[in-house]
Amino acid sequence: MRHIPIALLACLILAESLSGRSAAQMPFQATGSKLPETRISLPMKYVQRHLFVELDDDALGPLQFMIDTGAENSLLSLSKAQNAKVESHLFDRFYSISGLGSGKSTKIRGHFRLSLRAGNSKPVTVEAMVVDRAGVAPGLGHPIDGVLGWDFFEHWCVRLDYEARRMEISEPENCSPPKGAYTTLRGKWTSEGMLLPSTLILANGRTLRLQLHLDTGCDSTLLLNPRLRNAAGLAETPSTRGNAGRGMSGSYSTDTVTGRELVLAGGYLRWSGRSFTLLIGRAGSFSEPHWWLDGFGEAAINRDGLLGNQLLESESWTFDPVHRQVYVRSRSTSKR
């Protein structure tokens, strides 16, 4: 998520209004004519429960991207961008990016407009925020030069097929559900991410009504906010060592609890029949944005927790930005 001091907000609004940006200058758009109506299909690697694709930039060559719907903005590592022209915006020095972890937020070093291709496809331009390599979450067992974040999903129809290990991209107006049986999930589609209304029943019998952030950058089943520790019967300050994790803002600790049932979007998608493990963060694992400083969307996006790849990997997910909904084709555990 992005942060900027509230005192600069009025100046930013004025600067944006004077810049004359039009709808044609959206950060994601096809260069020249539209993309072919047939879908662009990319091989997708799934390493340590994280998704990766390779795309070619006209100036930088092949780049490895992590697919992360939990990241508000697309990112590019400074180590890859330093040999190209990086644009600096007036207020870049006031912006920072934070994520999971108790360390410092990541400063923005500038912006770079990527021109990405897949094979012989027409290029797709992407304005990525340039950050230090540490801000692109290293140590994931795979090379990573950048992140395709939620802003990408807001402007393209994207299908992530975990079983086939394919990522498909098409024009948003041509977005369609997958073939065969599928479920339509309607949640809160915001500029920060997708929130799905959820009901979680824990092994201790407690029922939690949650808004879960659909996050392909999270490797667990569920990662819940520390404020839910009491409901799970966990101490606020445990004396034992927790599970170690690492996010964009550094390391963090979690505890493991058992779930009995998870229902998404009012019953349209259900995981039940056997118990599953989930994680609840300890103090400092989640950043705590405030609605006044960061906006209502920022303050709400991770309030309850993250829905991660250990659960998402059993399905195929299609993100439709026109209708602001997600189509899910199940392999096994979900029911319509």
Radius of gyration: 20 Å
CATH architecture of the largest domain: Beta Barrel
Compute the number of helices.
6
**Termini separation (Å)?**
33 Å
Percentage of residues in helical conformation: 10-25%
- Give a short account of the largest sheet: 6 strands, mixed, barrel
**Annotated CATH topology of the largest domain:** Cathepsin D, subunit A, domain 1
What structural class do you assign from the helix and strand content? mainly beta
Name of the CATH homologous superfamily of the largest domain = Acid Proteases
Question: Which descriptor suits the 3D outline?
Answer: globular
Task: Tell me about this structure.
With 336 residues, the chain is mainly beta. It folds into 2 domains: 2-174, Beta Barrel (Cathepsin D, subunit A, domain 1); 183-330, Cathepsin D, subunit A, domain 1. The chain contains 6 helices and 25 strands. It has helices at 9-19, 78-81, 150-155, 291-294, 296-300, 309-312, and strands at residues 2-3, 28-30, 40-43, 45-47, 50-57, 61-67, 75-77, 96-97, 106-117, 124-131, 146-148, 157-161, 166-170, 183-185, 188-189, 194-202, 207-214, 222-224, 243-247, 250-264, 269-271, 276-281, 305-307, 315-320, 325-330. Strands 5-6-11-7-10-9 form a 6-stranded mixed beta barrel. Strands 3-13-12-24-25-14 form a 6-stranded antiparallel β-sheet. Strand 5 (50-57) and strand 6 form a beta hairpin. The radius of gyration is 20 Å and the shape is globular. The two termini are 33 Å apart. The model is unreliable at 2-36 and 332-336 (pLDDT under 50).
